[in-house]
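Researcher: Next entry in the queue.
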Amino acid sequence: MTAKVHLDFPAGIDPTLFSAGLYKEIPDQAGYWDQVPGSVVSNFDTNGDVNMTPGFNLDDTLAIIVNYTGQDIRGLYDEIVTISDVSLAFKELSNSGINQDKTGNEITYIIQAINGNINGDTTFDTDDTYKLLGHVLGNGTYLEQDALVYMLKLYETTIYDNLKESNYNNTPHGTTLMLPLTIENSSQLNYVFNGSITWRGDVNLSHSSIPQNVTTITGKTASKAFKYNANKVAATVNSKLTTELKDGKVIMNLTLDPVSQDVVGTQYKVAYDTSKLTFDSVEFNTENTATNFGTPKDGYVKFGSIIQTGDKVLTDKTTYTLIFTPKVALTNTLGLVTVSNTDAVNKTGEQLKLQIQ
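Model: Structure for this entry, 357 residues:
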């Protein structure tokens, strides 16, 4: 008898950086689990599959527990929840979305509203959207700790694909590392269990499984929800990158080229060589109504802008300047800084592809 678990890892997530172990519920102690004797903790392969045959049995109530084996889970999470999630959440709520008088104005799937419900109280409201905004801006975070258990959500695929408005309140909104292994036919020799992956705060599902064979949200303007379909990008905008040594500093400039888009939000993640540079500051040249943010982390800086109200946009005069102090003598800036992740959003709430030139 064999057992395999397949998790639907989306593009942008490396399955091999996640592991799974087989656990059984302790009889008469609901909610308490032990690792199954003889089981092996293994990493997923590149297809999102993991072998759970050792220790698998039909007598116990079984589940897998998933963990992250990479180096920086917070760095990954900062690429998942970005300025376009914030913009989409505010737009959905301002147009009287989930938990107000109508649904389906901006989002496509119920799981998007569940992910936007940051505090897990089943009500997606202004408290959640401002927590999202504060997290991205670096003004505090809703995460209890920088740990996977406060970020990840796992669902059996049959449940995930059938989430709808009618079961929104009865669906678990919280995070979990556990995926139940539901056995429907005990006479099989080979078992395959399918799970879907999503994240707290991933409102646009950019790094989440996309529900299949499910009716999208209905509502007053549901016909336009496809326009903001999850995990899609509407168009491409650009940023020009330059670096130089000047007055004993390493200066990095990024200048936005919105092309034909009305850009209202940008986000960049710039990694730098900590053995050679110390981060000093980030300077902004943006529209006066823009809220700018810059948050230094261990080895990278997350920064950008968002315009929440009015008709203003980020123009081609938008420039971000990062200033570093060298730790060693330098003759050039080659390889010192790298833009590892970007995000942008336009006035209508569509996520944009932001390319570096």
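Model: The mean pLDDT is 89.
Researcher: Noted, moving on.
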